[in-house]
Design a protein that fits this description.
Length: about 300
């Protein structure tokens, strides 16, 4: 499902859920000969967000194809009419295990499976299932830094780690790094943030929050064109903190109920009549006139 919605329309829809896309915020504008307009990038770009693959999960009542949905997602991305600039996995690449050797085996298998992606520019951030038990030691050995930033076609991307600390926080060291990373950027710089847990307090009772996430949001507030993409909650969700939109992605292993809709957080049981219902990934396309489009893809 794809939508193009202006900011006021988003403010209305964000409160009622459903398939929503948000237009504005990435700082694109009309094309210019040098690729910039008023100091901002104007070149189109397109990427794919996948999240919460939980490789190694077993539970036939939750997903009888748990050993196959990641491969289906890889095949679906490869089959897209247009290949993205890059792919990003926003955490919980693997399912948690107390066995350190098994954790590394799952990470190795995950890397082998996604090596079949046609797109070779792949970015990762950790989830708590990947990193909380060993503070990200195994994750870093397989996937690199826990937090980092990079630039692509004039957009500044920031990957944050709010999972390797068992306290579910970014921590003062990473917040200081974020402040330094943002310091040199002008207020109109287009910024895209990737994180696993929501930075805002979505539903703390279910661990759907970051304890010091508001400090990161405060650092981002001076930027006119910032947007956050996250995972963790295993469902599409859209929220605004001030002018900053936050978009959660579906899982590739099992959906979870809406925040606070049931007494206990638990995977939604597999529906044989609607296999792969609630599982999918997202494409994000940005283009001139300060627009970007989110399109939700469902596994089949």
């Amino acid at each position: 499902m794809a939508h193009l919605i202006d900011r006021r329309r988003f403010l209305h829809l964000a409160g009622i859920g459903g398939g929503v896309a948000f237009v504005s915020g990435l700082g694109f504008d009309v094309f210019a000969a040098d690729g910039l307009k008023d100091g901002l990038p104007v070149e189109d770009f397109y990427f794919v967000q996948l999240s919460d693959t939980h490789w190694g999960f077993k539970g036939t009542d939750k997903n009888p194809d748990a050993a196959g949905t990641l491969q289906k997602a890889v095949a679906a991305v490869n089959a897209l009419d247009k290949q993205p600039d890059f792919v990003v996995f926003t955490g919980d690449l693997t399912h948690t295990t107390d066995d350190a050797q098994e954790r590394r085996r799952r990470m190795s298998e995950f890397k082998d499976i996604i090596s079949e992606l046609k797109v070779k520019h792949i970015r990762f951030i950790p989830g708590e299932h990947d990193a909380s038990l060993d503070k990200g030691e195994a994750y870093q050995a397989f996937f690199g830094d826990l937090h980092y930033s990079f630039n692509h076609k004039g957009i500044h991307f920031i990957a944050l780690d709010n999972v390797s600390d068992p306290a579910a926080q970014l921590g003062p060291t990473q917040l200081a790094w974020l402040q330094a990373d943002l310091q040199a950027l002008p207020a109109n710089a287009p910024i895209v943030v990737f994180t696993h847990r929501p930075l805002f307090d979505l539903y703390a009772k279910w661990d759907w929050t970051t304890r010091d996430g508001q400090q990161a949001i405060d650092l981002l507030m001076r930027f006119q064109n910032a947007v956050v993409f996250y995972g963790h909650i295993h469902q599409e969700h859209h929220h605004l903190t001030g002018h900053i939109p936050h978009h959660a992605a579906k899982s590739l292993i099992f959906p979870l109920p809406a925040p606070g809709s049931v007494a206990k957080r638990a995977p939604v049981p597999w529906n044989a009549a609607k296999p792969y219902n609630g599982l999918g990934f997202r494409t994000i396309e940005a283009y001139p006139w300060k627009n970007y489009r989110l399109e939700e893809k469902t596994l089949t």
